[in-house]
Amino acid sequence: MKTQRQLYYGADYNPEQWSKEVILEDMRLMKEAGVNYVSINIFGWVNLQPDESTYDFDFLDWLMDLLYENNIMIDLANGTASPPAWLVQKHPEMLPVTIHGNRLVHGSRQHYCPTSPIYRQYATDLSEAVANRYANHPGLVMWHINNEYTCHIHECYCDHCRKRFQTWLAEKYQTIAGLNDAWSTKFWSQSYGSWDEIFLPEAMPTFKNPAQQLDYRRFLSDMNLELYQLEKAAIAKYSQGIPYMTNLMGLHKYVDGFKWAPEMDVVSWNSYPNPFEKIPYPQFLANDLTRSLKKKPFLIMEQATSAVNWRQINGAKTPNQLRLWSYEALAHGADGIMFFQWRQSRGGAEKFHSAMVPHGDPHSSRIFRECAQLGNEFSQLSDIVGTRFLADVVVVFDWENWWALELDAKPSTLKYIHQLRSLYAALRALNLSVDFVHPSESLDGYPLVIAPNLYSAPEAFGKKINDYVRQGGIFLTNFFSGIVNEYDQVYLGGYPGLFRDTLGIIVEEFYPMKAATHHQIDFQGRRYDNSLWEEVIHLNGAKALATFQSGYLSDKPATTMIKIDDWNAYYVGTELSLEGLTTFLATILENHKLATHAQHFLAAPTEVSVTCRKGAGYTLVFLLNHTEQTTKVKLKAPGADLLTKETRQLVVLKPKEVAVLKYVD
Ligand code: GAL
Q1: Please, are residues 401 and 457 in contact by the beta-carbon 8 Å criterion?
Q2: Choice from 269, 340, 352 to test ligand 1 binding pocket (greatest atom count within 8 A of CB)
């Protein structure tokens, strides 16, 4: 397998739009900006195959050689993301169908039904042709398969999808009785006598069967994965030793990343934080989540140099924001940072999306200057490549839980990412570094497991957590967790059925709060705001750590802890304010004397974000100032600053400034 030796730095490159003169200028500018890696041919289909019987590789041959001669590594896409007009004209049945029965047409991009046999055939033929031609090109370092599966089309209700859903269900459940049980179809007279009676969860009079909706989500993630696998297999007929990847989208709801990751050699994601947000925690946590999919470094395959063009109001990145947020990704395990796109388009839908080279003169552009600074810094940072992120705690994350939690007909409206965002903000405020884990994965080596709003989980996970706690691990979960199995059927006997014994509590009743209201809890004699959710918690071995302070629930438990010998489990029965949650987490750390990796290096706590990556014989300590103030960070020992080349024990960081210190073991 081709291995990476330097940080990848570059962009999506779409030179089909430009003349040869511009492309030759691009080579000069790329050198100036420290670009060593570009993704090409992502939307190249119609250029390569202008009609059904013609392949034309002249331009791509020239481009591949040109990039190679200029020492720019090539991430080559198979080009299947946007089917050409002639294909749509010939086979309109390959187009996706919306929930209201409209067939989407050509004229945008990614207009295909993922189960369509026609689309799959043409896409795999193209993949073979591309692989056959370029598999041995010396500039090729990565296969980029398709683009952002399910970004635009995460549902399709065509006849073929319905048939395929029925066979997918038959494979899963084997008997129709098995499906009827799993889907609780005795309720509302929904029982099926045969597979072909089953619809996709399309327009229906009222609430749709929840288990059916969940299976549809699984089905669509699986169908897109099947498509990815077919495209990959087509390339693999000709290619050896070149890694495969597709660009994921971090906290994107419709692709079950944990299921997809084993099919990729490298995981990557496209990161588009909103520049108006001071600290965009969802994107920051998506760095950790993406890394956790393969437990190894990942790539930022796309980010914007400044504004995007697809929000209502597209804020620009302010000076140094790009640099800070790029280092944030490196600090959390990225081995490369790429942009969409290299040169800002003149026409087409994305002409107002920022790029490395703007519409104006690059040499008078702040954006180009910042990009070039970053590229030149990155060329000095090869010590980062391949190093392992050091996590302090693990958070359980499950796409299937996301789907289940956000189905309708619940006690209240809960948003998984909103809840994760608050937790992550509190963890990072304490400089706790985070791995994510799927419920089926091992918890070995983590002192603290946190399962936020894990509404749905299989019985095996409840047992695993119970074993983990009995063996001395610390478990923390919160409201509306451990409620249903993977078929959305409640664990009976009192909530949260799955974790009731582990936590030593029984929740009798939920008390969702009115929208936009706050109450308070009493925790260790201090008051903290709570919102969204309250509940009646009975202690059954646990003790109350905090109590509610309003109405019927006054002085009843709000958060609990059970401690029996080495068995420690904590529960939070409400949505706490950031301050409340941070204090609660700090109490857990204190109770168990849990030391973080950052504390090995810091002489005193700091507001600056600190993370560590471990290389062979050394550790890298990343210091990132997301605050508004100049901040001093005192270290226990002097470290070698990779950016300034100085040895420093006291690091003074202006707002948005970063430092990377190297400590030899
Ligand atoms: C991504 C996509 C790119 C570009 C970018 C703009 O979703 O992969 O092709 O459209 O968004 O932000």
Answers
A1: yes
A2: 340
